[in-house]
Specification:
homodimer; 392 residues; alpha+beta; L-amino peptidase D-ALA esterase/amidase; 2 domains; 7-stranded mixed β-sheet; 11 helices
Amino acid sequence: MKGFKFKGIVAGIKKGANAGKKDLGLIFSTRPASAAALFTENRVVAAPVIMGRERIKAGVCQAVVVNSGNANCFTGDQGLRDARETARLAANALRIPEELVMVASTGVIGAPIPMQRLIDAMPALTTELDNSSFEDFAQSIMTTDLSMKVVVKKHKIKGEEFTVAGAAKGSGMIKPNMATMLAFICTDLDISSTLLKAALKIACERSFNRISVDGDTSTNDMVLAMANGMSGAAVEDSDDALEFETILNEVTLELAKMVVKDGEGATKLVKIVINGAASAQDALKAAEAVSHSNLVKTAIYGEDPNWGRITAAAGRSGADVDPDLMDLTFGDVVLVKKGVWQGVEAEKRAAQVMKKSELEIVLDLNMGSFSDFYYFCDFSENYVKINADYRS
Amino acid sequence: MKGFKFKGIVAGIKKGANAGKKDLGLIFSTRPASAAALFTENRVVAAPVIMGRERIKAGVCQAVVVNSGNANCFTGDQGLRDARETARLAANALRIPEELVMVASTGVIGAPIPMQRLIDAMPALTTELDNSSFEDFAQSIMTTDLSMKVVVKKHKIKGEEFTVAGAAKGSGMIKPNMATMLAFICTDLDISSTLLKAALKIACERSFNRISVDGDTSTNDMVLAMANGMSGAAVEDSDDALEFETILNEVTLELAKMVVKDGEGATKLVKIVINGAASAQDALKAAEAVSHSNLVKTAIYGEDPNWGRITAAAGRSGADVDPDLMDLTFGDVVLVKKGVWQGVEAEKRAAQVMKKSELEIVLDLNMGSFSDFYYFCDFSENYVKINADYRS
């Protein structure tokens, strides 16, 4: 990918069990890039989100600094000053205008940013950059993530090749809307910030906004896309825009699924598909209710085809449902047909399907023609362990 | 308590680990009682709920049969026939009209009711009744409950004493609205079914509708109140009604707290109080969001005063909040004052407060004058264990 350079280093911001791990990352475009971003919908937001919402209005960005040790949230005016100072320090080191630097952060809420560590780390962060260290960057944004989340795709528009590279981090507090986590998408395609934003919104709506780990919405999350136009490929008409949108959605969906798969304590990735809803809202409501249900999630962890919990979750979702019309399948096994349980044998086969690490459950409400989906993970003892111990 | 008799027996409906435990209960009033009931708001409802909603319209009830082994939910027309047959069998044995018998059930969803077991058990259930076996009844309605939930209070109206006795069962799928669990309240007070229903609604709104264990809403839940008027005490005017309402709310609140305390895997009972909300809805939304947050619940389990998760939950609740105005206290420890963290010492003291088995957290939004509250429990590995293994 042309014109993007990355870095990921240990700045000593992470503490406790994570001390000594990479915790400071940089994305740098050799020239200013079209940029668009989406932010958490939580009313309590971190300082970098406040600053980022302001800066992204210009539609241009050249560098992003991410720290994964401290959320810089609930840190008041000092937090905002620290976010701005972080951007200024990086801008000076990179010799670019500070308005072109975005900042993102994730980690513990409420503690002040250890600015001296950032100051000390800035030379190492901003020198010896290269375009092969995307994985270092992806590692530097991890918190409780067990695996690095990177997707790189190449595509052609009118014969000209371009690259879309995405990195994301989870893995708790994963719930839409647009409050999923941190994700950064770089492309060397030439596209306006307006079209980039439109494509990003659609891509996120069908990916990051359709996943759930624990139903909590973080204060810090952002998805940032940068397009520096250095590949030679350009979006010139609506067909090109649609093509880019498709490839961008592929990248965000793969990242989103990685986030769910690596959900805190997760052992399985589940897709719930709602078909036959009376309205688009009903389809989404039912999918959300199933994917957020702790009872559904623990049953999946236990490999128990406890379909009653799924139909009950749809029942309380607010969607228009009739139990006597529901069809429910686990993988290729029909468990319920028009509200009637299909018996012990079907349930045994469903239990077999559940042993796989990926599972698709389809609930047809048979009330209309609308569909939607959600990806979610199961819920194990480890989720509790991770989150009961996170700060200690 | 005059004129009420109870029974709780082993009918062989429970399976697996619970096989051999009491699973069939009876409440019988020697004369028809004023009655009122509230039911689950889930759109998927069990057969006894469908039948109960119809029967309770008459405002009179003389007997209730409860089974705790099989939910009789998602059982179609057969389920409804089985519920009616259960009522008919009990009515015949008790020699009362079948319309005066209510049925409630809880347990596994989707399996047909083993009617032969009910038929075989009916003689034992309906003979040798006495008014000292309220605890047997309370035990017979338990599923994963670890403790029996019984509250009995005596009170006087115009010098005449009456009793209010309540029994409830939890302990998963505990979430309002009125979808909390099974609860049965008997009183020998003389009160009309209209006033009884009004009092029950208010009492439940401030008790069962303010608790959360896991955010799921069951398909089966009902709260039933019966008043047979045999004590000599009577509700004759609005002052009397208010007095009864108060005592009824004491009973339902104590039962509700017992349900939370015995929530699946719970180790702590927490009351979240929201003060200073801009509207009543905001106060409730914020209280709900905090009490349903898995991140808050796991932090409390870990005795970690992770206040950022509480303020973040309020932030995503939809309530109008400003992080810079929030005050947050754990017990008597002020952790956040006008959005500012009160330091390491305060946090250490808060951690001490959290070691107790009961905890009150107060979040003042300082946006207005509205308050609300919620009781909830923490979230431990055991919740996952219980719910991953429930049917196996």
